[in-house]
Amino acid sequence: MKELESVIAKYLQEAHSFFKYKDSEGRDLNVVFVFENHPDYLTKYLSFYSQLPNLTEVVVFACDGTFKLTQNGLEYFIKHPHQEVFIDREGHERGIKPDVLKEMRTRILKRIGDLVKAKTFDELMLIIESEKIAGFGELAIYDTTMRIASFLKLEPDKVYLHAGTRSGMKKLEQRGLVPPGSSKLKAVLVDYLPEPLKKLRPADTEHLLCWGKEQL
């Protein structure tokens, strides 16, 4: 439990930063973005979508993973690393291909009428899932849902698992802090989380488990 509490303290108290080589159009950027802590980053990242003028623009930016951040008084449009195509250290291409993002954008735009009717995060996510195509996996579905949900003012009420977050949940499972098999679920109810995590919003817990998976 002490390891978990330490990770939570770092998440809430330590500054968070990341470096971007390119902007959303692939132009050289070379800027370090700095935030008070991880929740500060999450708030600023998602607030871009919540402040857009209409749902059509939200869907376009959400599917592409593009958002705007302000640094030292200057505004930058960048891509979220989950959607950005790049070559990793092993020489493998990561991210989601532009044609896949374009097809998903087209599909979801046709469902705007259904999006606005969604009453919960779960309902919204089911709509996005129903339109998924090859190359647009569970992480992209969650990310896109979170961005659209921020505009519709819908919050997840459970912790959704995918990629790194699933690894983080597996660490908690191995330590006996969550029920056996939790890491294999699509989402984990807050009631089944250890007490320190119950104090965080599910969206923060999702982000923390992914970011802190190696520290748990």
How would you portray this structure in words?
The protein is α+β, with helices and mostly antiparallel strands. The protein folds into two domains: 16-152, no CATH class; 158-211, no CATH class. It contains ten helices and eight strands. The protein has helices spanning 2-13, 38-50, 55-64, 98-109, 112-115, 121-130, 138-152, 163-174, 195-198, 202-211, and strands at residues 16-22, 28-35, 66-71, 74-79, 86-87, 93-94, 158-160, 187-189. It has a two-stranded antiparallel ribbon. A two-stranded antiparallel ribbon has the order 3-4. α2 packs across α7 (138-152), α3 runs antiparallel to α7 (138-152) and α8 (163-174) crosses α10. The longest helix has 15 residues, at 138-152. The chain is globular, with a radius of gyration of 17 Å.
What is the fold's blueprint, element by element?
Blueprint lengths: L1 H12 L2 E7 L5 E8 L2 H13 L4 H10 L1 E6 L2 E6 L6 E2 L5 E2 L3 H12 L2 H4 L5 H10 L7 H15 L5 E3 L2 H12 L12 E3 L5 H4 L3 H10 L5
Antiparallel strand pairs: 1-2, 3-4, 5-6, 7-8
Helix pairs in contact: 2-7, 3-4, 3-7, 6-7, 8-10
What tags apply to this protein structure?
single chain; 216 residues; alpha+beta; 2 domains; two-stranded antiparallel sheet; two-stranded antiparallel ribbon; 10 helices; 47% helix; globular
